[in-house]
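Provenance

Sequences were taken from public entries as deposited. Structures were produced by running a predictor on each sequence independently, with no templates supplied. The record for Aliphatic sulfonates import ATP-binding protein ssuB from Liquorilactobacillus uvarum DSM 19971 is shown for reference.
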Amino acid sequence: MNLAFLDVKNITRELLNNNNKKLKIIDNINFSVEKGEFLSIIGPSGCGKTTLLRLISGLDRPEEGQVTVAGERIVKPDVSRGYVFQNGGLYPWETIEKNISLGLEAVQGRNFDRNLVKHFIEIMGLQNFENAYPSQVSGGMAQRTALARSLILQPQLLLLDEPMGALDAFTRADVQNIVFKLWRDTKTTMILVTHDIDEAIYLSQKILVMTPHPGRVKEVVKNDLPFPRKRDSTNFLKQRRKLQEILSFE
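Predicted structure for Aliphatic sulfonates import ATP-binding protein ssuB:
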């Protein structure tokens, strides 16, 4: 039997509340993702979506259960797993070009592949902004920079923590299209945390729906709408209604 690329088994994460009592954030989470697949995670605020993503990345550790990627148990962060934060997580004192190249330089040293940096600047449409600072570019350009910084290391798995959440509607649609093109071209396994049902339907092959606190897997919905997807199509609207019904639980 073939093992899944990403396997999340019996994951439980607890924190201490103000009364020093254990509080479950997520409880007995189980799911798997195939190599090259795009999974979105949706659910109400506070259900532990970001906590789950941090556990997959190795930035956090569970009380119970384990996460494996390509058969190896995750115990700490690794360059094979990229992470894009909601606010981009860029260094404000570094230029756009430097932000993109930082990880590559850390791995390859001072003689890092500058042509690769140039390539990602071009495919992200950041030409002529190489020497600008994050505060001098739009939110969409900052998120494209964050995507480039993660993908330039050619990760096996890219984790996206609401990277389009703070963008206006037009910019969000543009970044969504860039994410889709990068997924299609690089065949990188991607997991997206989002509050936007339409975004999940537009990008994903599977959508994991979480319950309110403590977060559990309510349902994993297969999303086999053909690409390119049209947000006003009958099947798209049917999928949206289905997810809205699943999310309407108490």
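The chain has one domain: 6-246.
The beta strands are 6-16, 22-33, 38-42, 64-69, 72-73, 81-84, 157-161, 189-193, 206-210, 217-222.
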